[in-house]
Write a structure and sequence with these properties.
The protein is of the alpha/beta class. It has helices at about 5-15, 25-35, 45-55, 70-75, 90-105, 120-125, 145-155, 180-195; strands at about 60-65, 85-90, 110-115, 135-140, 155-165, 200-210, 210-220. A seven-stranded mixed sheet has the order 3-2-1-4-5-7-6, with helices on both faces. Bound molecules: S-adenosyl-L-homocysteine (SAH), 3,4-dihydroxybenzoic acid and magnesium ion.
C-alpha cells in the first residue's frame, strides 16, 4: 500500500489530462463547504466516464446517486445537443445543490436531477415505459446495488453499458465476514451477476486519490 504515491500519480494525470476549464474545483470546494461528504468520483474516474459515454455514443444516460452533480456533469458534457441525462437523488439538499451546479455548468437543458428514492423512481420509469438508456452509472447506497442493477438492465437495450462504482471497498469485497452492509450489498450484486445471462460483465480494481476501490462494467446482451 502506498496511498501517497497513488495520489501523486492521480495528480500528475490530472495535470496532463484535465485542463483547468474542465476541473470543477469550485464545485467540489462548495460541496465540502456545504457539508456534503467528499465521496464523488475522482477527476480521473469522472473523465473515464466521460470518455466511455463518448465511446458508446450515449445520448441517453441514467445515473443513480447524484450528490453534488460532479459525475453527472462529467457524463453530461459527453452528450450530443439533443441528448439527455437523468440523475436520481434521495436527499433534497443534494438534489438542490447539484441542480445549481448543473445550471452553472450550462447543462440544465440536458441534465435533470430527479429527487426521490431511486428504487421507487426506477419502478415508475419501468411502469411508464421510459425509453432505453445507453449508459447507466450506479453510485448510490451500496446496499441496493443489486436492485438498481436489475432495474438498469430492464431500462436498457441490447448493447447498453452499465457501470457500478465502489465494488472493491479496500478489498473488503472478497471477505464474506465484514459485517458491513455496503460490502454485503456489493457481494449480493456479484452473486446475482454470477448467474445473470442478460449481461456480460467485468470488474477492474483501481487505486488513486480515493484509495483502493474499483468499477464493474457490464454490457447488455
Ligand atoms: N455519483 C456522485 C456521488 C454519489 S454519492 C459523484 O460521483 O459525483 C451517493 C449519493 O447517493 C448520495 O448523494 C446519496 O444521498 C444518494 N443516495 C443514497 N441512497 C439513495 C437512494 N435510495 N435513492 C437515491 N439516491 C440515494
Ligand atoms: C462512499 C460512497 C461512494 O459512492 C464512494 O464513491 C465512496 C464512498 C461511502 O458511502 O462511503
Ligand atoms: Mg461512488
Amino acid at each position: 500500500m502506498n496511498e501517497a504515491l497513488w495520489e501523486m500519480v492521480d495528480h500528475a494525470f490530472e495535470t496532463w489530462l484535465v485542463p483547468e476549464r474542465e476541473a470543477m474545483g469550485a464545485l467540489t470546494s462548495d460541496a465540502d463547504e456545504a457539508g456534503l461528504p467528499s465521496i464523488h468520483v475522482s477527476a480521473m474516474t469522472g473523465k473515464f466516464l466521460h470518455v466511455l459515454a463518448l465511446s458508446c455514443r450515449a445520448s441517453r444516460i441514467l445515473e443513480i446517486g447524484t450528490l453534488a452533480g460532479y459525475s453527472a456533469i462529467w457524463m453530461g458534457r459527453a452528450l450530443p445537443d439533443d441528448g439527455r441525462l437523468v440523475t436520481l437523488e434521495v436527499s433534497p439538499k443534494h438534489a438542490e445543490i447539484s441542480s445549481r451546479n448543473i445550471e452553472r455548468a450550462g447543462l440544465s437543458c440536458r441534465v435533470e436531477v430527479v429527487c426521490g428514492d431511486a428504487k421507487t423512481l426506477l419502478d415508475a420509469m419501468l411502469q411508464r415505459g421510459e425509453p432505453a438508456f445507453d449508459l447507466t452509472f450506479i453510485d448510490a447506497d451500496k446496499e441496493s446495488s443489486a436492485d438498481y442493477f436489475d432495474r438498469a438492465v430492464r431500462l436498457s437495450r441490447k448493447g447498453s453499458v452499465i457501470v457500478v462504482d465502489n465494488v472493491v471497498r479496500g478489498g473488503r469485497v472478497a471477505n464474506a465476514e465484514t459485517g458491513d452492509a455496503s460490502v454485503e450489498g456489493v457481494r449480493r450484486l456479484m452473486e446475482m451477476l454470477s448467474n445473470d445471462d442478460r449481461v456480460t460483465a467485468s470488474a477492474l480494481q483501481t487505486v488513486g486519490r480515493k484509495g483502493y476501490d474499483g468499477l464493474l462494467m457490464a454490457v447488455v446482451r
